[in-house]
Amino acid sequence: MRGDEPMQIVSGPIVKEKVHFEALPKDRLYEEMRSFLKWWNSSPGRMDGILRAATAHLRFVTMHPYEDGNGRLARAITDMALAQDEKLKVRFYSISSEIMRSRNEYYKILEDVQRHRVDVTGWYLWFIKCVTASIEHSRDIIADVLMRIDFWNQHAETQLNERQKKVLNRILEAGAGNFTGGLTTRKYVSIAKVSRATAFREIADMLDKKVLRQLSGKGRSVHYDLVKPRSGDGGV
Predict the structure, then answer these.
(1) Is residue 216, in this structure, part of any structural domain at all?
(2) Do 129 and 14 have their domain in common?
(3) 236 residues of the chain, pLDDT tens digit each
(4) Which single residue of 2, 126, 130, 148 has CA 20 to 30 Å from 185?
């Protein structure tokens, strides 16, 4: 547990510090923790799982029982609450990761609720939006993984050297449409560590084998992208 000094969340230079939030005083902390644990143990199945997770997160970060690590623990508790509600051995999305991706919005809504600028309903609405975004993000990740499987299944018999595979994997790792600017001869040289002549030859080989397709441009400005795997060619 934290010490006796008031626990404040502040930002800005020392002479112009802004206090975003002051946690419960220590003399109330033990009582609030007991109340929280009693609620936590009795609440599964008694309220909506997402609302329970949102409530647990808000209560824990508002108590702020430790000097450090309260946010990490709150996110872990949140994921645990969702896992308990779903009763699944494996979950394919992480609310913790989504909160970290939206940390500026997260800190703003927490501050607004804790300082009573908005009703706690605002927190619940933001949290539900965050869960939705997390699921959509995970769906995109799974789609990219399945696309990689389809791609390599389709080209299982295609003769490619290790340099070509390295470049293709770099494009696949970026995700569909996310390899900025497409593949160019210059990028191939940089990734594969080969001469421009070798890069041009190996790209031409992949064009012939229908692994790559040419996009726009001519000469040094020509761009390439993957030939998308045909649906159903070995996908899972």
Answers:
(1) yes
(2) yes
(3) 666 666 666 666 776 776 666 777 777 888 999 999 999 999 998 899 999 999 999 999 888 888 888 889 999 999 999 989 988 776 678 888 889 888 889 988 988 888 777 789 999 999 999 999 998 888 877 888 888 889 999 999 999 999 999 999 998 888 655 676 689 999 999 999 999 999 999 999 999 999 999 987 666 678 898 988 765 444 43
(4) 148
Sole residue written with tokens 């699944």: 88
Structural contact between residues 164 and 202, judged by C-beta atoms closer than 8 angstroms: yes
Three-class SS state of 154:
helix
Residues 38 and 106 in one domain: yes
Both 22 and 93 in one domain: the answer is: yes
Paired tokens of 55: 């409530």
